[in-house]
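name: query_chain
kind: protein
chains: 1
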Amino acid sequence: MDYTKILTIEPGKRSGKPCIRGMRITVYDVLGYLAGGMKPEEILRDFPELTANDIQACLAFAADGGRRLAMPAAAWQGMRDFEEDLTPEELKLVEARLEAHQKGQIKAVDGEVALRKLRATFHGMKP
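structure:
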C-alpha cells in the first residue's frame, strides 16, 4: 500500500507527527489503539471519519518505518528552531542537506542533533 497518498506531515499540526489525511489523528494514535487491543472495526466505530484504508496505511507506515513519507517540511521546521544560530554558510549546508533528503540520499534527523552534526561538519570536527 502507498501510504504516502494518505498520511501527511505538517509542522504546525500535532508537533509534526504523521497524521491521517490532514486530520489531527496521528498514525501513532491509531497504532496505539491497535497495540492496546482495539480491533480495526472498533476504531472505525469510534472515529467514523477514518476508513479501513486509513488504518491499513498506518500499519504500512509502521512496517516500512516511515521511510517513504516525504518529510522535508518537518525536517526544515526542526531546523527553524535553530535558524538564528546558523551562519550563512551553515544555512547553505542545511539547504543542501534538505535537498539531499528530498532526493532520498539522507534521512531526516532531530533539529538539535542535525545542528550539532552540521556545525561539526562545517568546522571539521567530530560531532
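note: The chain has two domains: 3-64, 72-122.
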